[in-house]
Design a protein that fits this description.
single chain; mainly alpha; about 70% helix; about 0% strand; rod-shaped
């Protein structure tokens, strides 16, 4: 019972950590797949 109570007490923190990790993985994956860097200016030209 004590284990279930610990999970209930820390549930919000665990959800926040999981969401943060998922968001970080999404941003990192997008940066790696697009081939751009945050510090490098965009080379896109508009015709």
């Amino acid at each position: 019972m004590a284990t279930l109570q610990n999970i209930r007490n820390r549930g919000g923190l665990m959800v926040a950590i999981v969401i943060g990790l998922a968001l970080g993985a999404f941003i990192l994956g997008d940066m790696l797949n697009s081939g751009t860097n945050l510090m490098k200016p965009s080379q896109m030209k508009i015709a």
